[in-house]
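[stage:ingest] chain + small molecule (magnesium ion)
[stage:ingest] validated
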Amino acid sequence: MASVTFSSVDKVFGKDVKAVNGLNLQVKDQEFMVLVGPSGCGKTTALRLLAGLEEASGGEIRIGDTLVNDVPPGERDIAMVFQNYALYPHMSVYENIAFGLQIRELRGWFWQIGHLGETRRIRLDIDRRVREVAAMLGIDPYLDRLPKQLSGGQRQRVALARAIVRKPKVFLMDEPLSNLDAQLRVQTRAELIRLHRRLGVTTIYVTHDQVEAMTMGQRIAILKDGVLLQCDTPETIYARPANQFVAGFIGSPSMNFFPATVRGSVLEASGLKLPLPKDHPAAKEGRAVTVGLRPEAIFDAALPSALKPTSDNTFEATVDVMEPLGHEYVAYLAAGSINMVATLDNATKLREGQTAKFVANLDELHVFDAGTGDAIR
Ligand SMILES: Nc1ncnc2c1ncn2[C@@H]1O[C@H](COP(=O)(O)OP(=O)(O)OP(=O)(O)O)[C@@H](O)[C@H]1O
Ligand SMILES: [Mg+2]
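[stage:predict] done
[stage:export] tokens:
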């Protein structure tokens, strides 16, 4: 097991596609790190650089203390699970799992007639490891089947077994759940987390799904256009996003944003005034900012579960659309010319077309620079 360190790593494709741009990231030994970001932000490229399937254009990559830029992929002791997990179709589940081990561990002995005893010992050891891992992932009843005789979720687990059985220093997983249906994804997500707890192997997990990132990552690294925007625990990223992009990307429904101007101790938007917290660094008369408020920080003022309405935190809005989700409503509100989304307790009596009072949790007000999008705090 080992830590992983990217130091100022660049990857340029062709003349000017900067797939990875000055990446600095340290993954701790035994950590479960999630790389998340929109399509094309460089997630797969970062994994491929670490696995040695791509050569870095600049910077240093380390596994443990070893600089691996020039170490061939086969010697990096990494196992990667790809999005399309490509099992060998003509091999049984057993053979799929055992194949890599046989190649690695028997290769040196194969032609040496004098070492039959040794090859037999290695074969028995491989057999024991394959059966152990198969049992751990619940695929032991299917060892004799071909991949086409399995469900998608079972095939997924065979691909995982193939990676785990090698006991690598680092696991790389590139959207390994994307081929599964919603229910199986949730189930496999939990299985992967349990597996990580049990094996404690340093893992870098790629997804574009922020829910997957939040639920699985001990820390999350958010990339955009090859640049790392923020790396922290899910809780910190949710509560203290470094910029507007991260704020909008993490959380569902997304954070509401609206332009405002600082007037004295008030954030003035068209049709809405919110107080700027005392001594806030954004307090500069006339400064243009973007205000961020999460849907879950807005309450129906009529409900006892709401925050206590005061003159500061209360505003009036009209309900455009109400989407019932059962445990709550997603409400689309219009406050003057500002549109926002609120998740409301399912006890709400509000219906579409009504105008009512809403309470905002001012402790969860975010302020961003209108130009750079950086959080001001
Ligand atoms: N072999 C290549 N040649 C040229 N450009 C490439 C190559 N591989 C990737 N790119 C480009 O590098 C950027 C990052 O690609 P990458 O595959 O790492 O994105 P990703 O974050 O994994 O996206 P997705 O979520 O869609 O899988 C993209 O703009 C992509 O077009
Ligand atoms: Mg990718």
